[in-house]
Design goal:
Elements (H helix, E strand, L loop, with lengths): L7 H12 L4 H8 L3 H10 L3 H45 L8
Length: 100
């Protein structure tokens, strides 16, 4: 059997149609290519939808990280304010002198 060669434009068109919802079987029947060829072309291309999902996951992960850092920052500020209040109370009591 003679091996068929397909242009990159043709392969990209098939792959894009698959990303838009067409099944490999439908594309194979419609364009006269083997399912194996289409699967091979799909392996070489990543779905733009998958890339968008990965980006969304990364953004969500970044938001969680920022949110946790915000909480940690607020907790440290509260602890700092408590320590400052305690130091002021000790200094006002006259028992301790601190030079800063």
């Amino acid at each position: 059997m003679k091996k068929k060669y397909y242009t990159q434009e043709f392969k990209d068109m098939i792959v894009n149609r698959h990303f838009l919802g067409a099944t490999v079987k439908q594309l194979s029947e419609e364009f006269g290519t083997t399912e194996r060829s289409i699967y091979n072309w799909l392996k070489k291309k990543e779905s733009p939808i998958r890339n968008v999902q990965l980006s969304i996951d990364k953004i969500s992960e970044d938001k969680i990280t920022v949110s946790n850092k915000d909480k940690e920052y607020l907790k440290l500020r509260q602890e700092n304010e408590i320590l400052i209040s305690a130091i002021k109370a000790l200094i006002q009591g006259g028992n301790i002198k601190i030079s800063i």
